[in-house]
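Board notes, transcribed. Complex of a protein with adenosine monophosphate.
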Amino acid sequence: MKVLRTIGDYKLHLQQVKSGSRTVGFVPTMGYLHEGHMSLVARAKAETDHVVMSIFVNPLQFGPGEDFERYPRDEERDLALASQAGADAVFLPSAAEMYPSAVKTTVSVSGLTERLCGASRPGHFSGVATVVSKLFHIVQPDRAYFGMKDAQQVAVIQQMVNDLNFPLAVVPCPTLRESDGLAMSSRNVYLSREERKQAPVLYRALQSIDGWMNEEPHMTGAMLEERLRRMIESAPDADIDYVQVLTYPGLEPVEAPLGAADTFIAAVAVKFGNTRLIDNRLFQKQ
Ligand code: AMP
């Protein structure tokens, strides 16, 4: 596995890869890898010839007072896991090279980014769209792999790729979970033992949706939000940021009863102590 730390080194590496007309699969991450990240690499390996993972804790997507400084980092462990997962190259740029001077050009996707996490984390998605577009230009992938745990991010990146004609396919991948249902996340290490015990309530609430919809065929988005909220609040340390039922990927309120909706997403963000967790479930008519 190649480890590339500068844009110049990556470009030289890419020349060799492209001269063999191999397709490039790309998995952007912020590191502190877990099985969720590794599953994206596995999918990329199955669908492309050469898999590049990036590890970059992007300062631009953290707001003031968020966890940029304390975000978990462990390069040695990450490189071992990336190699184990079968990545062909890891790109680890420095913040100094990615943002050599105060940034004057950013990418923002309107509408989609004003809801859910965008409402609680102003500027977050512009930071994401900016770094992902820079990484797309540098890495030049044919396919880029993103986890549906961050469903709003997938919608924003897909919109950006369509609007700006990036010549690549965005591939959404399923959320990997711990055995008790908690969505894997680098931030799970922040949870205290007691918070960790309570956190799977998010998954249990999302899993209850099927039963509730069977009981109540005319369930609306607002009714479902209320049920989810009540169940999540049964965990004593859960502090709800949002519980929302929206169309996907448009992220608009669902007008009709949910049974008639083509596709909707139930998305939650909940703080346990200082740790903000997100999770969601997507419902698609067959
Ligand atoms: P992050 O390092 O948290 O920025 O995540 C990098 C990529 O991994 C993003 O596309 C995430 O959506 C994805 N990811 C994070 N957690 C999971 C998970 N539990 N299952 C699948 N993909 C995930």
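The mean pLDDT is 96. The pocket of adenosine monophosphate is lined by residues 29-30, 36-37, 39-40, 146-147, 149-150, 173, 175-176, 183-186 (CB under 6 Å).
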